[in-house]
Write a structure and sequence with these properties.
By secondary structure, the protein is an alpha/beta fold. The protein has 2 domains: 200 residues, Rossmann fold; 95 residues, UDP-galactose 4-epimerase, domain 1 (Alpha-Beta Complex). Helix 5 links the parallel strand 5 and strand 6. The radius of gyration is 19 Å and the shape is globular. It starts with a strand and ends in a 12-residue tail after the last strand. Bound molecules: nicotinamide-adenine-dinucleotide and thymidine-5'-diphospho-beta-D-xylose (TDX). Nicotinamide-adenine-dinucleotide binds next to helix 1, helix 4 and strand 5.
Length: 345
């Protein structure tokens, strides 16, 4: 099987390539990645001689057509992926997440190639903290941010291309990933690398916001289950029952790194900050027999901390610019009053 992996130099895509080389040595892999600020070939260290790496844009129709023509499957990870960036400048999100996905869909349509679309639980909006329902495949779309709205739009393009043109596609919507090679702009690596640098971690609002954490390798094993056994035209939600609020995560990281658990700053909250995500992955588990392997968040977090300690040369080049951008928009604020909603408006 020859797979085209878009975004294969980013966090989840590079872990997918590493995982695939290790578990499916017979697979032929081409990576298409524009190497934006979020992508680095260093994430493919150890496998670059086993794959073909093409630097290019998923919205480059001629390049995409030529690559798609030669493969059996496209797995589409490439995206602008960070909510805070989408609030500062939405345009790259429209261009890559919508126009880029459109470009890929037209190419797989022309060449009759199987397509798997990587998406997010954020397309469903957010839940109240005490809502007993979790997101499932029939939850209505209700995205909040420029990021999540462009991901929602790209999912809808895929559904239309399946129905109107018979494209052989599947979609997966996954919850928050953690693990090695995640950009230091994201919550967990930002706090780990701040602590290594002697800087206090930064918590948005009161930190009551809940994310449903899944290890990146569990996400990618689910993606493989869907590629191999998923029903064409279906959507599968990927989650590992990992709901934790941000305050607890930050305290856990501080504790694991030998710091007092209150040694963090509250900073300006994110505009429109989603309160809670939670995934019901029953369909994936019952239909495809998938189960997560990483069930203990604390030990997954400890291993992730070790990875950042051991791989400073990977993250150091991106750290200063990331923190400078945050410093321009975020200020340290007083701790929000206990019992607050976690959102400041
Ligand atoms: P990332 O930002 O770490 O990586 C994105 C990669 O895409 C980078 O290598 C970048 O260079 C590349 N890229 C960006 N624009 C491109 C373009 N126009 N052409 C070609 N390449 C381009 O993102 P990630 O966290 O690895 O997310 C991967 C996918 O998974 C995204 O589609 C995201 O929406 C989805 N997702 C992420 C999470 C999460 O927790 N990170 C959860 C659910 C779904
Ligand atoms: O410094 C921080 N402090 C903080 O409290 C940062 C960077 C984040 N946060 C909060 C905001 C969120 O509630 O932590 C939570 C996680 O934030 P992010 O890492 O930015 O992730 P999130 O916005 O939840 O989106 C992530 O999961 C879904 C990915 O970035 C998306 O690509 C994916 O679709």
């Amino acid at each position: 099987m020859h797979i085209l992996v878009t975004g294969g130099a980013g966090f989840i895509g590079s872990n997918f390539v590493q995982h695939t080389v290790a578990t499916r040595p017979e697979a032929k892999i081409t990576v298409l990645d524009a190497l934006t600020y979020a992508g680095t070939k260093a994430s493919l260290d150890g496998v670059l001689d086993r794959i073909r790496f093409v630097e290019g844009d998923i919205a480059d129709a001629a390049l995409v057509d030529s690559l798609v023509a030669g493969v059996d499957v496209v797995v589409h990870f490439a995206a602008e992926s960070h909510n805070d960036n989408s609030l500062a400048n939405p345009w790259p999100f429209v261009q890559t997440n919508l126009v880029g996905t459109f470009t890929l869909l037209e190419a797989v349509r022309r060449h009759g190639v199987r397509y798997h679309h990587i998406s997010t639980d954020e397309v469903y909006g957010d839940l109240e903290l005490d809502d007993p329902q979790r997101f499932c495949e029939s939850t209505p779309y209700n995205p909040s941010s420029p990021y999540s709205s462009t991901k929602a739009g790209s999912d809808l393009l895929v559904r239309a291309w399946v129905r109107s043109f018979g494209v052989a596609a599947t979609i997966s919507n996954c919850s928050n990933n953690y693990g090695p090679r995640q950009h230091v702009e994201k919550f967990i690596p930002r706090q780990i690398t701040n602590i290594i640098d002697g800087v206090r971690p930064k918590l948005y609002g009161a930190g009551l916001n809940v994310r449903d954490w899944i290890h990146v390798d569990d996400h990618n094993s689910a993606v493989w289950a869907i590629i191999e056994r998923g029903r064409i035209g279906e959507t599968y939600l990927i989650g590992a029952d990992g709901e934790v609020d941000n305050l607890t995560v930050i305290r856990e990281i501080l504790d694991l790194m030998g710091q007092p658990v209150d040694a963090f700053d509250h900073v300006t909250d994110r505009a429109g900050h989603d309160l809670r995500y939670a995934i019901d992955s029953t369909r994936l588990r019952t239909e495809l027999g998938w189960e997560p392997q990483y069930r203990d968040f604390r030990s997954g977090l400890a291993a992730t901390i070790d990875w950042y300690r051991d791989n400073e040369s990977w993250w150091r080049p991106m750290k200063a610019a990331t923190e400078a951008a945050y410093a321009a928009t975020q200020q340290v604020v007083a701790a929000p009053v206990a019992g607050g909603s976690g959102e400041e408006h």
